[in-house]
Amino acid sequence: MNLKELAAELHLSQTTVSRALNGYPEVSEKTREIVLAAAQRFGYRPSPAARRLATGRAHALGVVFNAERNAFMDPLFVEYLAGVAETSAKEGFDILISPSTPRDEIVSFGRLARDGTVDVVILSAPQVTDARIALLSELKFPFVVHGRPPAPAGISYIDIDNFGAFQQATSFLIQLGHRRITLINGEEHFTFAQDRSRGAAIAFAAAGLPNDLLDEHFMSMTAENAYRCARQALESDARPTAILCGSILVALGVLRAAAELGLEVPRDLSIVAHDDEMPAFPAEQFHPQLTTTRSSIRAAGARVAEMALARVAGQKPGAVAEVWPVQLIVRGSTAAAPEKV
Amino acid sequence: MNLKELAAELHLSQTTVSRALNGYPEVSEKTREIVLAAAQRFGYRPSPAARRLATGRAHALGVVFNAERNAFMDPLFVEYLAGVAETSAKEGFDILISPSTPRDEIVSFGRLARDGTVDVVILSAPQVTDARIALLSELKFPFVVHGRPPAPAGISYIDIDNFGAFQQATSFLIQLGHRRITLINGEEHFTFAQDRSRGAAIAFAAAGLPNDLLDEHFMSMTAENAYRCARQALESDARPTAILCGSILVALGVLRAAAELGLEVPRDLSIVAHDDEMPAFPAEQFHPQLTTTRSSIRAAGARVAEMALARVAGQKPGAVAEVWPVQLIVRGSTAAAPEKV
DNA sequence: CGAAACTTCCAAAGCGCTTTGAACGCTCGG
DNA sequence: CCGAGCGTTCAAAGCGCTTTGGAAGTTTCG
């Protein structure tokens, strides 16, 4: 059943029926009720395609799914998506996943922005120089970002306090007596990796320690990379007594390296990992249970979707700039540094 | 620029331009070339919304994303989605994620099917009695399934050989001398869990062993659940010498339970896990490296998307019924059963 | 050479909705 | 008693595409 038929059934014009259904004020309460009741009764549902054509609004938000990158580094993506889904479901918004390879990610964004298949896009893991942000800004297409944009002015975003998290974690390790600390960070071009790097550095400076004791490595945060990196660090002469991990996956690799070298955690090696709360891989399920800096990526996804919807509803870009605190949770993978280094 | 303007620019009718662009035969090669060149030059892209309205085809495939379920049990979902994305990108199909909670999952499917926002849906993890399949069949809405439908007749699907995988894994353990084996399976209502159960049972029967030596547990396959289950089994009088795990996550929980009880893998306990190839958590990155039955969920995602597109193109439901073999890969988590049980 | 059969192109009618501009009936102040 | 003002409703014009049913122009063939 379509609008025309419904209108005919009610002996009303399409205009009135449409307005009644969409809550416009210029229709009397009485007829509105009649219309709503009839729509209910006939199971009328307006055609999204037609509405889209008529209004130019897609009633959908876009997420670019970079298959390569996500497959390797982002089991987080599901959690994040779950958050996005949560709020978009409330508003009846669809989520359009635009697949892409890293190479043509920018093309995907262009397509989304120009095609009108979505009203707004959510962009995650911003980079220090981010072509996607540049493109969307130029096209004047609405977007919000999850993570810290390199130049946050005029851009709505939500991020967690990566700086604070790693400063806190590093200070904590220093207080436990650790001096040589390895930081296994994400790739250098991500803003979050930069923030974490600064956080750790500041903690060293604050403790009056020379920052060459901080051994920092940037890489794609896979368990495999982390394993290699940890192995190398732990076999070197200047063996660290603690390792800061950018993610739970990194911790997995580090744990393996330690186990293979016969090092016991936390006796010989302390580990702190950042945990985005993947319910599938809870930090408590590792052995030993991991000390983490924790923040919910799902909640962040939900919030960023809210922002996206607000943006569609007319909110100014740059209206929201939230930085969520991160909590340090001490569990079993950290201990005082061993006596002799 | 829209079709009308483009046509005006070329001094041709919209009809001709539209046909030229869509490869219809009733337009001469010469004009087709001219049209294509002009479209290219002006950067013309037809409006998806308008096309959708006119044709009734959405040019999109739907995936219902059950946020609750996936968050806890399906980091696999990303991998799977990556596969789907891979092929749908080739055909320029969009992927519409329809969020839902377990409760109203069926509503989501109904909405997808009736709204015309997608042309076909992909359904995963079919259950023994599956309301979703029933609904879509009744609505005569095109769908394909990833996993084994309870009544496969007239339904296109692709599945991995869960039966064979667990038969093989179980036989392998029996050959190593294991007699008491615990199977930590998925929830009973999933067809894959049934298939795995049957596979293990057959292996016991084939070896002439009483099947009460097989201690089977159905549950949502989280690390936490697996941990509890393994802990209980390993502390019981009839302690198993081997545990079959439904997923890598399950193995994580089992490893923790073993570690806490001072059991060494594989000396005191052998572990075989099914591995859907999450690149984020490779079986090789565990310590010890896990013996697994392996199959690529990503490849399956890609294939099921192909089937979905074929379905849209007019292929009959039930035309495809593929069962992919699963390979047993022996690594470091299995060994001969300890001498005295 | 004229009818039949193609080939190539077009005008116009939708697809199902929103939204503009106008009309209709009423009330009300002057 | 009349026109202004208001609340309610409607007819019709899009939105940008596809597709039907011809209409020209070209070739084929008896």
Automatic annotation (TrEMBL), chains A, B:
Gene Ontology molecular function terms on file: DNA-binding transcription factor activity; transcription cis-regulatory region binding
Gene3D superfamilies: 3.40.50.2300, lambda repressor-like DNA-binding domains
Residue span(s) of domain HTH lacI-type: 1-55
Pfam families, sorted: LacI (PF00356), Peripla_BP_3 (PF13377)
Domain of life, source organism: Bacteria
Family matches, as SUPFAM superfamilies: lambda repressor-like DNA-binding domains, Periplasmic binding protein-like I
InterPro entries (alphabetical): HTH_LacI, LacI/GalR-like_sensor, Lambda_DNA-bd_dom_sf, Peripla_BP_I
Key words of the record: DNA-binding, Transcription, Transcription regulation
Protein name per Swiss-Prot or TrEMBL: HTH lacI-type domain-containing protein
Organism encoding this protein: Pleomorphomonas carboxyditropha
